[in-house]
Design a protein that fits this description.
The complex is a heterodimer of chains A (281) and B (370). Chain A has 13 helices and ten strands. Chain A is an alpha/beta fold and 281 residues long. Chain A starts with 5 loop residues before the first strand and ends with a helix. With 370 residues, chain B is α/β, with parallel strands linked by helices. Chain B has 14 helices and twelve strands. Chain B has helices at 49-56, 83-92, 101-104, 111-122, 128-141, 147-150, 160-172, 190-207, 218-224, 242-247, 252-259, 299-303, 327-346, 350-368, and strands at residues 5-18, 21-34, 38-43, 64-73, 76-77, 94-97, 178-182, 210-214, 227-232, 235-241, 309-310, 316-317. In chain B, the strands form two sheets. Chain B has an eight-stranded mixed β-sheet, sandwiched between helices. Chain B has a four-stranded antiparallel β-sheet with strand order 2-1-4-5, covered by helices on one side. Classes of the chains: A alpha/beta (281), B alpha/beta (370). The structure holds adenosine-5'-triphosphate (ATP) (2 copies) and magnesium ion (2 copies). One magnesium ion binds at residues 49-50, 99, 182 of chain B.
Chain lengths: 281, 370
């Protein structure tokens, strides 16, 4: 097997938080993994297991307590290097936050929210070009130009989420951290957004850290998957290997809890009864 | 035995007025919530679910205009209540979990105190220790580990899913008679989600709570709902018992929803989606708003809004396909239904994944060969 080039190399990453004076939370605990160029890496796991914290570390939003992160030759834990490469890093990395609603500037209009990163990077020299591009980006996520003038508070939850997606996609990043990007969307729009992710990966050579709890989607979309529990990465591997032969007990439990969209089957299985994961997926 | 309605909505319409025109977010919705049931409300992004929920507790955003309709809770007309009475009702009878957990938490107050405030409102005579016990019990109920350690944490110190569960703890603190839960499990992994759904079911059975559960996840609906209402472009287009909706849906939009499930993606080699995007509500299209995306649309659908047709005593759908004059089109329904059934009997959607795997292997082989 040829070894694909590595884009992000995470080694022994830890991030601890202080709770009060004496207690620490090991949000991320000695995690090592790699994201290859142009690959979709799915990150799943328990609520509170450290997924978002890992994502934020890769974006330099959160400083690791320990460990190293290397992005395309840049050591992200070295402040000087990060500063020297600021422009490249800003241009190439994008994040869709889990609480995207509160991450959007409530006072800005939709048009400016989507245009902002493009403006900062001077991607378009002409205003009209920029506006046209923003319109196209919105259309891709199913919102027409009548939304340009709205503010986030005038949108539904899923519409706000799609604005956050359009903003990140517009930059055509090389690394996209997508933290639960489709959790607030219904199946039909999810499917269309998933196509956009695939497009970004295939046409623009983007690597994506896809943090999600919808396991069917992760299986469908990701090349490789990592499973987190209590700050630790308990399993990493090719998607199919993980889904067809999970090794860690937590992974097994996770796979057996996928809700079945079929009331009769649910009743038959009983909510509590552990269902063999092979049957569920 | 027919259960009593605890909440009745009649012909409710809510709009927003903006420079571009009027956005009709909720259009002529009539719906009732029965004592002790879980009613799931499903529908596409932007179809009006959250606006409907907020109007039930009179917490609509500024600029919202309730054009018509009545909302009755246990016989009381909500629009007649004073703000003070409404506040009391919100503390005691009816509780809401908002879709966006962060905005409903106070960032400057510890989670423990925020839950404590609601408990205090509900049990004014309780001493501090007693209340703290209750807060910890609630945190445990929603699966926050080491609740004692977390009592004094601020919202930003929690993960997304933990915050969502804290909001749920606050909503449950007052043992509400009616719980309106707007996408309460979107940020949760499947194991915790299953746990929470189980807890909600238990609470519902123990206390007789009636729950209006907004979600887009039909897997969740199948787990928890007694009845289901399907909303499209501001209108309810179909409602019935959960089984009737899952196995005998009549509205083309409901079919589309069931078919878009990744779970049933077999035989399609990918995700099947409803073509097009949700329509504009400024103003919504005439007739059946779904018609332009509906492969079975009749001419009538573009012109006139379909009324509700009864499928059974509990099951209603608003589509002209159920009209006597649409016998021809109903044949299509039968075809579609038998297809649905065969998909379900065969179950699973492994093929799609296998296909993808094969593709990947081919890709790898190509890369490996010089
Ligand atoms: N600023 C902070 N201060 C203290 N603790 C924090 C902080 N940020 C996160 N944590 C803790 O770190 C742990 C991991 O949080 P993180 O947000 O990474 O989880 P997650 O895997 O994204 O969970 P979810 O699926 O619920 O979003 C949690 O226990 C959380 O409470
Ligand atoms: N304050 C507002 N001003 C103007 N329009 C609004 C406002 N709030 C909501 N809307 C519009 O009303 C419609 C219904 O919004 P609502 O939030 O109820 O959708 P929803 O069904 O909850 O969707 P989602 O699943 O995405 O949360 C949307 O088209 C939205 O753009
Ligand atoms: Mg998170
Ligand atoms: Mg909503």
């Amino acid at each position: 097997m040829s070894k694909q080039e590595v884009l992000v190399d995470v080694q022994n990453l830890s991030r601890h938080f202080l709770l009060g004076k004496h207690q620490i939370v090991k949000a991320v605990d000695e995690v090592s993994f790699q994201i290859r160029k142009n690959e979709i890496f799915g990150l799943v796991g328990e609520s509170g297991s450290g997924k978002s914290t890992v994502g934020k570390c890769l974006m330099n939003i959160c400083q690791p307590t320990q460990g190293t992160i290397c992005y395309d030759g840049v050591n992200l834990c070295d402040k000087r290097e990060v500063k020297a490469q600021k422009r490249k890093l800003q241009q190439e990395r994008q994040i869709i936050f889990q609480d995207s609603t509160s991450a959007l500037n409530q006072r800005m209009r939709v048009e400016d929210i989507v245009a902002e990163p493009l403006r900062i990077q001077h991607i378009f020299s002409e205003k009209s070009q920029l506006k046209q591009f923003v319109k196209e980006q919105l259309e891709e996520v199913g919102l027409d130009e009548s939304y340009l003038n709205r503010r986030p508070s005038e949108l539904s939850g899923g519409q706000r989420q799609r604005i956050a997606i359009a903003r990140a996609f517009g930059m055509k990043p090389r690394l996209l951290i997508a933290d639960e990007p489709i959790a607030s969307l219904d199946v039909s729009i999810q499917a269309q957004i998933i196509r956009l992710f695939q497009h970004l990966q295939q046409e623009h050579d983007c690597a994506i850290l896809f943090i999600a709890h919808d396991l069917s989607m992760v299986r469908f979309l990701s090349d490789r998957v990592g499973v987190m529990q209590k700050g630790r990465l308990v399993e990493v591997g090719e998607t199919e290997e993980i889904f067809s032969a999970p090794k860690h007990p937590y992974t097994k439990k996770l796979l057996s809890s996928i809700p079945i969209p079929d009331p009769r089957a649910v009743r038959k299985a009983g909510i509590e009864k552990e269902v063999c994961h092979e049957d569920v997926i | 035995m027919k259960k009593e309605n605890v909440l009745e909505i009649h012909n409710l319409s809510v709009s927003f007025h903006r420079a571009e025109g009027e956005t009709q977010a909720v259009r002529d919705v009539s719906l009732s919530l029965r004592q002790g049931e879980v009613l799931a409300l499903v529908g596409e992004s932007g179809c009006g679910k959250s606006v409907l929920c907020k109007s039930l507790i009179r917490l609509l955003p500024k600029g919202a205009d309730v054009k018509s309709g009545s909302i009755r809770m246990e016989g009381k007309e909500l629009s007649q209540l004073s703000e003070k009475e409404m506040c009391k009702l919100r503390g005691e009878g009816i509780s809401m979990i908002f879709q966006d957990p962060l905005t409903s938490l106070n960032p400057t107050m510890t989670i423990g105190r925020q839950i404590d405030e609601t408990v205090k409102l509900h049990h004014p005579s309780w001493k501090k220790e007693r209340r703290k016990e209750r807060v910890l019990e609630l945190l445990k109920l929603v699966g926050i580990e080491e609740a004692g350690k977390r009592y004094d944490s601020y919202p930003y110190q929690f993960s997304g899913g933990m915050r969502q569960r804290c909001v749920m703890a606050i909503a449950l603190a007052c043992n509400p008679k009616i719980l309106i839960a707007d996408e309460p499990t979107t940020a949760l992994d499947v194991t915790i989600q299953a746990e929470i759904l189980k807890q909600l079911k238990e609470i519902q059975q123990k206390l007789g709570t009636s729950i209006l559960f907004v979600t887009h996840d039909l897997g969740v609906v199948a787990q928890i709902a007694d009845r289901v209402a399907v909303m499209y472009a501001g209108k309810i287009v179909e409602y019935g018992m959960a089984e009737e909706i899952f196995y005998d849906a009549r509205h083309p939009y409901t079919w589309g929803l069931l078919h878009a499930l990744p779970y049933y993606a077999k035989e399609r080699g990918g995700l099947e989606i409803i073509p097009g995007f949700p329509p504009h509500l400024t103003p919504p299209p005439a007739g059946d708003a779904f018609a332009i995306r509906d492969q079975y649309a009749l001419r009538m659908d573009y012109e006139q809004m379909p009324p509700f047709f009864a499928v059974s005593e509990t099951h209603y759908a608003a589509t002209w396909l159920l009209d006597e004059r649409a016998a021809e089109a109903r044949k299509l329904i039968e075809e579609r239904k038998s297809r649905n059934r065969s998909i379900r009997e065969e179950g699973g959607n492994k093929d799609k994944y296998e296909e993808k795997k094969e593709q990947k292997e081919q890709k790898k082989e190509q890369e490996d060969s010089p």
